[in-house]
Amino acid sequence: MSKLTDLPKRILIGRALRSDRLGETLLPKRIALPVFASDPLSSVAYAPGEVLIVLSIAGLSAYHFSPWIALAVVILMFTVVASYRQNVRAYPSGGGDYEVATTNLGPRAGLTVASALLVDYVLTVAVSVSAGVENLGSAISFVVEHKTLCAIGAIVLLALMNLRGVRESGKLFAIPTYLFVAGVFLMLLWGGFRGLVLGDTMHAPTSGFDIKPEHPGLAGFALVFLLLRAFSSGCAALTGVEAISNGVPAFRKPKSRNAATTLALMGLLAVTMFCGIIALAMATGVKMAENPATDLIRDGVPVGDGYTQHPVIAQVAEAVFGPGSFLFVLLAVATALVLFLAANTAYNGFPLLGSILAQDRYLPRQLHTRGDRLAFSNGIVLLAGAAILLVWIYGADTTRLIQLYIVGVFVSFTLSQTGMVRHWNRLLAGERDRARRRHMIRSRAINAFGAFFTGLVLVVVLATKFSHGAWVALLGMVIFYGTMTAIRKHYDRVAEEIAADDASPDDSVRPSRVHAIVLVSKLHRPTLRALAYARLIRADQLEALSISVDQAETKALREEWERRGINVPLKILDSPYREVTRPVIEYVKGLRRQSPRDVISVYIPEYVVGHWYEHLLHNQSALRLKGRLLFTPGVMVTSVPYQLQSSEAAKQRARRRAEWSAPGSVRRGPVERRQKEPSRKG
Amino acid sequence: MSKLTDLPKRILIGRALRSDRLGETLLPKRIALPVFASDPLSSVAYAPGEVLIVLSIAGLSAYHFSPWIALAVVILMFTVVASYRQNVRAYPSGGGDYEVATTNLGPRAGLTVASALLVDYVLTVAVSVSAGVENLGSAISFVVEHKTLCAIGAIVLLALMNLRGVRESGKLFAIPTYLFVAGVFLMLLWGGFRGLVLGDTMHAPTSGFDIKPEHPGLAGFALVFLLLRAFSSGCAALTGVEAISNGVPAFRKPKSRNAATTLALMGLLAVTMFCGIIALAMATGVKMAENPATDLIRDGVPVGDGYTQHPVIAQVAEAVFGPGSFLFVLLAVATALVLFLAANTAYNGFPLLGSILAQDRYLPRQLHTRGDRLAFSNGIVLLAGAAILLVWIYGADTTRLIQLYIVGVFVSFTLSQTGMVRHWNRLLAGERDRARRRHMIRSRAINAFGAFFTGLVLVVVLATKFSHGAWVALLGMVIFYGTMTAIRKHYDRVAEEIAADDASPDDSVRPSRVHAIVLVSKLHRPTLRALAYARLIRADQLEALSISVDQAETKALREEWERRGINVPLKILDSPYREVTRPVIEYVKGLRRQSPRDVISVYIPEYVVGHWYEHLLHNQSALRLKGRLLFTPGVMVTSVPYQLQSSEAAKQRARRRAEWSAPGSVRRGPVERRQKEPSRKG
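^ inputs. structure came back:
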């Protein structure tokens, strides 16, 4: 049975891996870069297009603003990278923005950051997968024709892979990421060479199109607002930069320095690719519109519903490498792969953040265990479910999903940088060494500028995108924040209630005697075992209790009891309605009333079976009785398990489950490191 | 909190009633009749129409066969009633067909009857509610325009009422049933008076219509087949006759005799109404067609999709009382009410049959408890779900649903009557008294004729309706049969496995010592209580065990332990991955390996909370640990509950739940009666 049902599961979820086989190796920079950079680098696959789409609202003439917007994004990228280089030096423990905000700005700010990041993980999955499907669709038309379906399929596939607990390796990340980076640079270089040296004129497939502006002749404040909106969309290129600050422990020594270098390298790569793609898009005459069917004009008429607007990167590649060429297809596939990889990072980050939040009791405590399969599974299923919902609602349309994105990242950026300013202020107050002080003041200036600039961008993003969808992201944040606050409050209330009083070390009435009761339905092995165990306990009083629901059976039980000569008194209670729970509860309550200082110890023989459906057939009365007994004060309930043969199956299932390895372990680093870090700094 | 959430629930589900407030009064015949007869009497609201619809396939000329079909139904009804009068005399315990078949024909026949009845309960709900909606729709057009929706709404409403545990009273059944019977008889008498005495010609709304036969000029075997099909549809009038045999204990003394008289009265009423309605339908020129839109011809053209075909009883009432008249509306409402009441009987019967099957271990044992709320809830939800599915698939169309109906009833009739023949044979073998023998031989003849006739009808029903939908009902029966057989096999296998061996009264190695372990996470009241209780137990060895997931917390625990001077050794296990379960399991296994004759007793402090969502926040690690420990041999697990303040809410909820009264109690009779009956006769 178990063999048969295991086969499809093993195919889908895979053979579990032992967690102690986890690679405890640290990452060199050349591997760390792709591990952490797939998210920010992959966003150059859609960010340039989103900038052009927003500009197209004001018509083709607005396209000449694109270099300026690219410049603004570059400045912002440098600011953010410079800021986070300070973070990784100051907080090498891998706590990330949540830790920085909590330590320096208090738990509310920390919780805000956490909520923002949780929402952002969901959007990373939705946006990256949608963009991946669109990029893949530029080479394989089937994919783009069934966009929503393919996107949901990819999300489910990623979820299954992560539920499986894939054995991660740096190579897994390195190959597609380097392939993508190499492909883009090859495209930029070859395109530049053809255009500047050979003097070729390259034509994107949309170069002959015209754009019907939705708001022609936009000027003044309206134009500024539109440019700001285009800039906000371009800021999508910055998502994921903060990920490295969670992963410092995974780097080789000197950890902080290597992390900072990798961060700088990543920023440099990202801006080069971002600007290069925009430049080539201008040179090859790429046209993008928000509503391509009506606003893209070919030969004087709108292109209509049949037209598929391909991503900028695909159009540029087509112009540079030629339509359908090997390099074009390769780049499309590499782009899609790196985007799916970016989505995968969210699958790693979401449950990890959950476990850190659980440590601070903002989420159920059991999520705290590192790599606990159940916690990870719940997190992965929740993340995939939310992402599927978004993809389904927004039809896997990157342009519409991007409106919700970024809000979370910039909330997190701003609070983290503000926290860093406080961090330096605190350190400066206690530091006397001049060289160190100078260094700190410099760092503080960088973080202060970072906080200011990212805060400004946050305001811009909120102002320009609120009604376009950012409110959804904010609503998500509020829901996460509210839930986590409520959970924390509950834990605090309970902790107060159960705190041990110093004056009276024990609880209320001190118990004096134990009255043990063994529940008996029939005289079979489980009952005999329960009786044997209960007898070992040497309670002050021991009796067997049976509920009579059938007079013939009760008579048989009594006879068997005497025949076997069991020297435990057998008490039988009548139950006209064939109920089991109520007579027992009332009997126990009666005993407690007679002698309130007695503790009642109830022994329940329990069947251990291997399958959930078998469980439905056994123990149900016992379970319900147990549930009620727990509410009766002065009672303890002991299960005496009897393992049926079928329980072997469940045992083996549990063993396999224990051998599972949690996803995201490569970027988290070895476990000993994280152990040393105290749970809360505040 | 509990007050607020209770309000909507109380409105929907109602305030629970104490089960000891159940009317223990026995039913006089005038109340017993409506209690048991709503199902068979209500079927005259649709059975005549179904006969006409089948006949219409051969064209209007085939209508003249309708009196002959009515005659056949009448003979069948008398046969069945006469047969069941023997049943109620021979088996006054209320076990019904299941008991008769199991006792006389063996468990397989019994299980077949049970499967058939379970399927039939589902169809009773689906058919009665659909017919009720159609009848109500003849007066209120909104209802028939939203037929499926209204039918599903009615099913859900009935389910809620039954989940609520309505306090039943005979009056509840008596008023609509007598109203309906009175209405129909008034219609028959007034119609007869107008037609025969006043010489009025009454016109049904369809009297001027013509019918386009689907198979014109049907003759020979095909015609016979069609007539048999019409007869099968008319047999719907017989469903529910067997219900009285389950309810004998609810009658006043002499129970069997009163039940038999009520049965005869019910049969007489049913056939009179059935024949009267068919006669009036002929007299007023009612036309019914299977596909009214195309086959009903008005002024030479089909009536089209906009036409609603009203039930025969409504058309006759319109002709006799006049369209829209008070009596017409009253009868429509009474008909709908009595049909909903008929559906309600299935809600009572389904879980009751389930509890009898659970007693014989064909269903999970916990369903055995009489009036157990959980068992009833599961049964009601399953029944309503299946009925909704059918109503939804078949668009609440009585004509299509009726094709699935009856199969179950006639399987049950045939097996029950065959069983009765065996019963008399057995009794006759041991009986010497001549008068009694003569009586038995007479009864046997009646039952033998009943078995033959109902068996014949079963064959006819299967032959004529199999491809029209009866296969669905058969499939349902097979599924029920298979599931119940599998459950019984499982129980038998387990019973064999756990049977106590006579040679060695105890299990394998006799345990000698107890090693008690108290699990400790922090030193709070729940832990202190668990320590206090465990100390009372006087185990051979007692230690406290804590898993170190955070070094700072562990240090604090150790200090607190010493400060309080707790004289129990504290053992601390390291867990680098912050796991709790695995280190404990491995420690316990190690102890068992060292001394295999020790029993390990693990004490787990457990938090008792009031709400399910609070439960998610606590005890999860404990629960999982407990789940794993159960698979470890030689271990017993003791929960030491600590009742948090919020647990009060759950306690009160449990109390309210205990005060619930099960539906269907009126027809089941008082509990003492059923207790005396042995569970199985075989």
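Chain B touches chain A through 93 residues (CB under 8 Å). Chain B is about 65% helix and 5% strand.
thumbs up if we can close this ticket
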